[in-house]
Amino acid sequence: MNTSHSVALQNFTQKYISQWHQQTGLPPASTDLYGVPSPCIVRTGENWVYWEPQPFPIKDASLDKVAAALEINLQGDIHAFYTTQLAGDMKATFRDITLSLVQVWNEDDFIRLQENLIGHLVTQKRLKLSPTLFIATLESEIEMISMCNLTGEIILEKFGSQQRRVLSSNLTNFLDELVVVIEPQG
After folding, report:
1. Where are the beta strands (DSSP E) in the chain?
2. Which of 54, 145, 162, 182 could form a disulfide with 86 if both were Cys (CB 3.0 to 4.6 A apart)?
3. Which CATH number fits domain 2-180: 3.40.50.10170, 3.40.50.10860, 3.40.1580.20, 1.10.1740.10?
């Protein structure tokens, strides 16, 4: 799947890896993923893992189960975002917002991600909010960056409320504007 969004994600990932190498001489590292198996792991430290992205292992993977569970169609971009690669979450900034881009770490994580997206969408449906699909977390646990499922815009939203601010017209532009943040481990 070589769409503009998957290319933009791969380009950002390569920038992320390059900057880790430049600043630390090592691949990206994560303490959060320590002890969690993944084909991405290239080395293990005292309480962290070093990782590199891997091709997504499931042929023709999609978020169709999420769509079917809620009987809605999902923006096509979101399928590519979550099924282009396996990788660790990546820190970045978008203008003045520091975020962690959500990625899939292994096949079990892909199942968990789909369950979390379903839970998120069910909550929105119950609260009569338009559907969104999260793509990044923030320090604040009540705010996140999501894709609006109606328009494809990337928004900053407050969970469970109508507070939403458009950040970018689409996923590709959003990914292209991200700036890598490196936080060396150990």
Report:
1. 29-30, 41-44, 49-51, 54-55, 85-86, 90-94, 97-101, 132-137, 143-148, 154-158, 164-168, 179-180
2. 54
3. 3.40.1580.20
**Domain locations in the chain as residue ranges:** 2-180
The band of 4, judged by pLDDT with boundaries at 50, 70 and 90, is: confident
Single-letter residue type at 158: K
CB 186 within 8 A of CB 29: yes
pTM, whole model, 2 decimals?
0.94
Comparing C-alpha atoms, which of 135, 113, 123 is closest to residue 161?
A: 123
The alpha carbon of residue 131 and the mean position of all alpha carbons in its chain are separated, in whole angstroms, by 17
